[in-house]
Amino acid sequence: MIFQGAKFETVELAFARFVLFGFFVYFVSLFLLDASQQKTIFYLCVGIPALPLLLSKTQVRQVFTSSLSAIFTLCFLIYFSLSAAWAGTGVLAVADSIKYALYLVCLMLAVKIVAERFDVDQIIQMIVLLGCCSLAFYSLMILAQGGGVTDWLQRRSSLHAISGWGEDNPISSAVILGLPVLASWAYLPGKKKWCQIFLFSFMLMGLAIMLLTKSRGPVLALVITLILLSLYRRKIEDGILCAAILAVAVVIFSFTNVSEVLLNRAADPNYRMEIWGGSLRLFADNWLLGQGFGHQAAIEYGGTVATHSHSSLLEILRVGGVVGFALFVLMVFSIFYGSMLRKVNPFFAFWFIYGVLCLATNGRLVLSRPTIEWFAFWLPLFFALYSSARVKHEQV
Asked: Nearest Cα to 25, choosing from 8, 9, 7, 43?
């Protein structure tokens, strides 16, 4: 091992601090840069600095043997990496699967370091602050471009289309915008009135920009998650928030043509059921072990061909079969059951629910390079795995 003995502790601590700083740079990039730039930031600020730490016996033990949940996570990554061997797609697919699994191990280590330093409330506050700043930026860019509500609703926008910055995919843009809305909703109860009004304003702003993306899945996922969160907490603020948002929606629908635009969008052709049916047929042909990593779906629909299931859950089933999906269930159940036993703030559970609902209608395989699947699936899962009920004293 590289890091052994007291004389190497300073070097290990320096790398851990760099990874801690690099993770926050990467997290900020999710709101302000496009996917390709986010990947570069991750490699430079998290991936490369984390690699030496993976050679530390102490770090490896803490990441993988600290709990049964971490072992299930490692088994999930190993299984889907090995599945490339029976996919029949060549050596490059095997190399890619191992590389992506290593990226995710680096992300696990980075989240562990962050979770040791910050508690759940501090992470929620960070998301709220970062979300409010990014929403204010994108709102100002919309105002700077001018045009009325009708003009904006006639096009399908992404964060990049709005400002020249941020995610250039409308669906991914909506997924990202939903998280600060969810975090603000979770953070609002018990705060001072001026703070609650401020947060409510930014929630409306986030919802409005989400509607400009015309992405149905993320909007529906956010609504379902907020309802579940409200039912779980049963606080008076949740009822007031629901009533206030409903009142604003009634006013907007009464004095604009938003309803007409949304109905037209809802009526647009949707080939999801056709694609999902094709994915299930492929699963039925390889039900035990799946088609394997790197095996493209090749599902014909609407005159074109889909290379994946357009649903992360179905993609796990198609690629990994019953064995892979069983490992997925074990991993997720053990992580959140352990989080519940530690009495961790359930915010990460609701973030995960929101993310999985988004990916259920448009996601790809979660074993991948840095993509929206990391934002919606792996980040809340790893935070739930490593977070404790209160701030730990061991800080990097």
From this structure: 43
Q: How far apart are CA 251 and CA 244, in angstroms?
A: 11
Report the distance separating Cα 286 and Cα 81, nearest Å: 17
Residue pair 272/361 in contact (Cβ under 8 Å)? The answer is yes
Q: Which residue from 333, 387, 317, 376 is spatially nearest to 68, judged by alpha carbons? A: 333
Token pair belonging to 292: 């394997």
Q: Which two structure tokens, joined as six digits, stand for 389? A: 């009920």
Residues constituting the chain: 396
Strand partners, 394: none
Per-residue pLDDT of the chain (396 residues; tens, 9 = 90+): 444 544 556 778 888 899 999 999 999 999 999 989 999 999 999 999 998 888 776 777 777 766 889 999 999 999 999 999 998 877 888 899 999 999 999 999 999 999 989 999 999 999 999 999 999 999 999 988 877 666 777 778 899 999 989 999 999 999 999 999 999 999 998 899 999 999 999 999 999 999 889 888 999 999 999 999 999 998 888 888 889 888 888 887 776 666 666 677 666 667 788 999 999 999 999 999 999 999 988 898 877 888 889 999 999 999 999 999 999 999 999 999 999 998 999 999 999 999 999 999 999 999 999 999 999 999 999 999 999 865 443 333
For residue 21, give the amino acid letter.
F
Q: Is 9 helix (H, G, I), strand (E, B) or coil?
A: helix
Q: What is the pTM of this model?
A: 0.92
d(CA 150, CA 385): 44
Instruction: HSE, CB side, 13 Å, CA atoms: give it for residue 162.
Output: 31
Structure tokens, 153 = 């609703």
